[in-house]
């Protein structure tokens, strides 16, 4: 399994405008086909904030939790999934015409936990199918963020 997956999109808007959408974690369900809810716990979102999430894949709905591990306004937001250790991130890069928004999924330990790998193989059709769906979801998410920001 690759250690990272990545997708990016160019948005015709300043990083501050893109950031206002990306950093509003409660809105992720508007954009992501795999996230039904992301609820930050506590006051405001910052490094260290915990979230409770509800996700879906291939007809299955399941809860997860995560913790914000990087929060740099107008630049980067990343959260680590507590159940499997993967890190999901958004990076904003200024361009001549606006912002390039990059979404990544990293596997810092080099491999997923055995229970998850077995689930991917038996329930989600194997790595290629599972990761293909993740990348497709990333592209869909970024496209919807672009539409929202450019309106």
Automatic annotation (TrEMBL):
Pfam families this protein is in? Answer: Polyketide_cyc2 (PF10604)
> InterPro entries per the record?
Polyketide_cyclase/dehydratase (IPR019587), START-like_dom_sf (IPR023393)
Tell me which stretches of the chain form a coiled coil. none
Species, as recorded: Nocardia yunnanensis
The identity of this protein, by name, is SRPBCC family protein
Q: Give the domain of life.
A: Bacteria
